[in-house]
Design brief:
Elements: H1 15-18, H2 34-38, H3 42-50, E1 54-61, H4 69-82, E2 87-91, H5 99-102, E3 111-113, E4 116-118, E5 120-121, E6 127-130, H6 146-158, E7 165-171, H7 178-186, E8 191-196, H8 200-215, E9 220-226, E10 229-231, E11 238-240, H9 246-254, E12 258-262, H10 281-300
Parallel strand pairs: 1-7, 1-8, 2-6, 2-7, 8-9, 9-12
Antiparallel strand pairs: 3-4, 5-6, 10-11
The chain binds adenosine-5'-triphosphate (ATP).
The site of adenosine-5'-triphosphate (ATP) has 20 residues, from α4.
């Protein structure tokens, strides 16, 4: 990441952390002393224990909603599983849980065993936890305030029996609000992957995500541009929907990696399961991108 960019707003100083009087919950506060930061809260210890057999944890984030973050997460999970990896997906987008639809698990209900909450496995063997599994019907809204949603996601991590996984992909809510930031601070991540389209507004919000990640010391593995082009049905020409890639320009500006781009798939219905055999434009484009993300996660371990 470029060190020259210094337009990050730092968090306001927290006096109790600065004086060393904060509780162990303050360990991730930017104002905490080195000793405070070394202290681990009970929750953090539970998270570490639960994820001890998960080799890589990667969060998929976006500055804006609707840019394809869940589609990218689900297709990355499919691609990694096709590479023979053991994959789990934590759908941390509590108010807009789409992962069960994309991975063919609509209508399923969460069950618990002596080991904790049991993730539901899709037909590719991908283990999924989502708030959708606790809703009565898929059109029931999750009318919970932010802190309750964050607590639910934390519980999904502390209470789930993930078992051995090569990759846990975490689909975060969009933006730089309390929920994505809390999850990024609580779960020890290899890094985040940022998804954006090349629309001006979407790219604008990506800068905020990059600066947030920098502030809370979470590595950015790179950027993926979604719906970047359409393949002309009659020739090889790529029709770039938003003109020249602004996501690539932004990656260069911040000294970040452009991991890849995914075309707009006119056949993607959005409500149906992504084809489990991977035969779709989106999953085909995702395969080399998933391999790159896997390599990057290995490097950042
Ligand atoms: N490459 C693509 N080609 C065609 N349609 C796509 C593509 N990527 C995403 N979509 C469609 O765009 C819509 C938004 O995608 P998705 O739900 O994955 O976005 P999101 O960023 O996770 O949204 P939110 O943050 O609001 O949950 C969906 O209808 C999805 O099917």
């Amino acid at each position: 990441m470029s060190d020259t960019n210094d337009n990050t707003l730092s968090a306001p100083e927290c006096s109790s952390c600065k004086d060393g009087k904060g509780s162990s919950k303050c360990a991730s506060c930017p104002s905490a002393s080195p000793e405070m930061r070394a202290k681990k809260s009970e929750t953090e210890q539970q998270i570490e224990q639960r994820l001890s057999k998960v080799k890589h944890r990667i969060a998929i984030v976006s500055g804006k909603g609707g840019v394809g973050k869940s589609t990218v997460t689900a297709s990355m999970a499919l691609s990694l599983s096709m590479l023979g990896k053991k994959v789990g997906v934590l759908d941390a987008d509590v108010s807009g849980p789409n992962i069960p639809h994309l991975l063919g698990l609509e209508g399923r209900k969460l069950e618990a065993s002596m080991e904790g909450l049991e993730p539901i496995m899709n037909r590719n063997g991908i283990k999924v936890i989502s708030s959708e599994f606790v809703l009565t019907t898929s059109d029931t809204p999750m009318l919970w305030r932010g802190p309750m949603r964050t607590t639910l996601v934390t519980q999904f991590v502390t209470d789930t029996n993930w078992g051995e996984l090569d990759y846990l992909l975490i689909d975060l809510p969009p933006g730089t609000g309390d929920e994505p930031m809390s999850v990024m601070q609580q779960i020890p991540l290899d890094g985040i992957v940022i998804v954006s389209t090349s629309s001006n507004l979407s790219v604008l919000d990506v800068s905020k995500i990059i600066n947030m990640a920098k502030t809370i010391n979470v590595p950015v593995l790179g950027l993926i541009e979604n719906m970047s082009y359409m393949q002309c049905p009659d020739c090889d020409r790529k029709i770039r929907l938003f003109g020249e890639s602004k996501v690539e320009r932004l990656a260069k500006q911040y000294g970040l990696r452009m991991i890849g781009e995914i075309p707009l798939d006119p056949l993607n219905s959005g409500v149906d399961e992504l084809p489990a055999d991977g035969r779709s434009l989106i999953v085909t484009a995702m395969k080399p991108i998933a391999q790159r993300v896997a390599d990057l996660a290995e490097k950042h371990k």
